[in-house]
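Job type: complex structure
Entries:
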Amino acid sequence: MKTKKVATLGLSIALAMIMSYIEVLVPLSFAVPGIKMGLANIVIIFVLYKLGTKEAILVSLIRVILVSLLFSNAMAMAYSIAGAVLSLGVMWLLKKTDKFSVVGVSIAGGVMHNVGQIIMAIILLGTEQIALYLPVLIITGTVTGVVIGIVASIVINRFKNVRIG
Amino acid sequence: MDMFKDKKTKNDIILALAVIILAAGAWLGFELMKDDGAFAVVTVNGVETARYPLDTDAEIRLESENGGYNILIIKDGKADVTEASCPDHVCVDQRSIGRTGEAITCLPNKTVITIEGPSDAEVDFVS
């Protein structure tokens, strides 16, 4: 791995962690319990488009592990990893079809992050009752996905002529 | 290039609408599946402490383990928390509940009020 790439990936992970930290500081859950903006996904999408799939997986997983260790616990880590894996997997698929813009990819990512967490909650807690909450999370995930996608596409466009990594 | 971009944007919009319609449909389905509840079940710190029938109006003071309290009002087949010792008052802000599966949660007092149907009560009796 080239030095420049190592530096870029390190920077991306740091940025994704700061985004997660901002979400810890400014929780949105007073409006709808449990919702998040998904700010870190700006960085993940940026890395996915500018560096590649493997790099995005790396940044996403390291971010989840570090953030869980810093701000929450092992239980939360299981939820976050399930969300991150499903989210990134579907975003990669949609990007590969080349039929959607960054915003579409981001919507899928936001929705799937919630779906992954609910699936993990059903597995860990053994209650399907939690699935009742899924429609609300899917709708809020779509809305935040649009916002995050627009921000991510602006950032990606700004870096159009910049070679990173 | 612009046309290409527009087509993707169109697909984005279709995707967003499809997801929202699907979720709204599921939401509606879940709402219709809910039945009128029969009991308000009070759980403090994971242990069921009391069970009140929804067809009898009542005003109950729920004491929590940390010395706090929540005032539970049962009226017209619905349960509502109108007053609480907790600082954030999330439980007071939540709407009144009366259908199976609905819940009011007070995290500071570790108190949860859930609505259960008549069949749930029987199961509890047997077990």
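Summary: Helices of chain B lie at 2-33, 90-93, 118-126. Chain B has a mean pLDDT of 82.
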